[in-house]
Amino acid sequence: MSGRRGGEMTDLRPADSSGDVWTCFEASTDSFSRFDYFFVSDGMLPEVVREQSRVVHDPLTYEASDHRPVIAVFRATDQ
């Protein structure tokens, strides 16, 4: 995928603790989909903390929304 300025964008594709990447559950069709994404530019890619970026797997989130939270963590290298 290309960004606004023509640079490449990378899909972080965070997963939950089971390795699942779905972010939305539709009860009426009993289906799971991935609707929520994090894309980063080539410049930000080295700042991604992949081991802390994830889709939240917590039963309480199912009560709040049909979407699961997605967390991307970055550590700035240019301070």
Give a quick summary of the entry.
The chain is mainly beta and 79 residues long. The protein has one helix at residues 59-64; strands spanning 9-11, 24-26, 31-33, 39-41, 54-55, 70-71. The chain has one domain.
Task: Please describe the structure with a list of short key phrases separated by commas or semicolons.
79 residues, mainly beta, two-stranded antiparallel ribbon, two-stranded antiparallel sheet, 1 helix, 6 strands, 20% strand
Detailed description of the structure:
The radius of gyration is 14 Å and the shape is globular. It is built from 1 helix and 6 strands. Strand 2 and strand 3 form a beta hairpin. With 79 residues, it is mainly β. The model has no long low-confidence stretch (mean pLDDT 90).
Query: Please, what is the average pLDDT?
Result: 90
Low-confidence stretches: none
Count of the domains: 1
How many helix segments? Answer: 1
Oligomer: single chain
Q: In percent terms, what proportion of residues is strand?
A: 15-25%
Instruction: Work out the radius of gyration.
Output: 14 Å
Helical content class: under 10%
Please count the beta strands (DSSP E, at least 2 residues each): 6
Secondary structure layout:
Elements: E1 9-11, E2 24-26, E3 31-33, E4 39-41, E5 54-55, H1 59-64, E6 70-71
